[in-house]
Amino acid sequence: MHLPPHLLKLITALKGLPGVGEKTAERFAFQILKWPKERLQTLASTLSAVPDELRHCSVCGCLIGNTPCGLCDLSQRDPTQLAIVASDKDVFVLDGTGTFRGIYHVLGGLLSPIDGKGTEGLRLEQLRRRIAELGVKEVILALDSTLDGDATALFLKRELESLDVTLSRLAFGLPLGSSFDYVDAGTLSRALSGRSRA
Amino acid sequence: MHLPPHLLKLITALKGLPGVGEKTAERFAFQILKWPKERLQTLASTLSAVPDELRHCSVCGCLIGNTPCGLCDLSQRDPTQLAIVASDKDVFVLDGTGTFRGIYHVLGGLLSPIDGKGTEGLRLEQLRRRIAELGVKEVILALDSTLDGDATALFLKRELESLDVTLSRLAFGLPLGSSFDYVDAGTLSRALSGRSRA
Prior knowledge:
In chain A, 41% of the residues lie in helices and 13% in strands. The first copy, chain A, has helices at residues 5-14, 22-32, 37-53, 88-96, 124-134, 147-160, 185-193, and strands at 55-56, 63-64, 78-85, 102-106, 138-141, 166-169. Chain A has a 4-stranded parallel β-sheet. At the A-B interface, helix 1, helix 2, helix 3, strand 2 and helix 4 of A face helix 1, helix 2, helix 3, strand 2 and helix 4 of B.
């Protein structure tokens, strides 16, 4: 006996979620079967409405609702500081800290020398134009501390060094609450070289 | 800055999936934002159609599509053997082995002495009626080898012992491909007491 065709269709659709394979999709599907009709409809209609309800700001690339982009509102934000982030999700993480009041530029990805991914798809033209137009003084590279993040930071440094802006990158060091026992040598070494007066 | 309301709605809806918390739901939601419109629509419409496309057979409780229940078709299945399983999902697992050609009865759960869950919601009336009407000769308890499974097996044994049927339970022993090094003492002890001639 095989699974009913509609259940297979549901499982296939759920397998598109990140990290969800056959077994997890099956588990999700059988749970969904137990949901009341209203709950099913809520998820279905929320999914359908995504293209209408959520869009990316054409200027900074941030994810916004059906309203003008609050992160591009220069009466609220300081245009002299611009943070470059890889993805729309990173904006929420960084802005959630409440310590940055500048503006953002979503790059749309990272260079990946290993995977052979170059600058295609990255919003570089808009970046240069915005830096020039907005009178940005400091560009903060808020990128992952991975090989791809490092490659992208190096690339952006070369791209932007001819412009009259200060370039900075997020600090590397011990994560808060971390114990020496669990910190790798690379992190420790960067924390040492970036030490500050106590 | 907060997440757009529609994104929050999507995250909340996704959190209903088993094992999916805030962080995973966020990861799912941001991935879903990248999906093309058609893919969104496919998942949305599949979810909406679940109540129309999938139902449980009123006789055996198995999950079926829009067709008569193939597992209750006595021209294809042997009604002298009836397997009692806890959930609709278990039917697919057991039937997928291809070694059982009898009929099923989905109980709809297990007793749980620890959680104080009794027989409420279990399809016991239908079970007794089916055993009497179909001329079942053997009832196979195809239940988990857990505390709840054991409690349910014991309960069913007492419930059904007055009927003229043979009661059996799935064998306990070494899982195929297992090494002695990784088998617990309880399993080994059951495998020993259930040994057969080599």
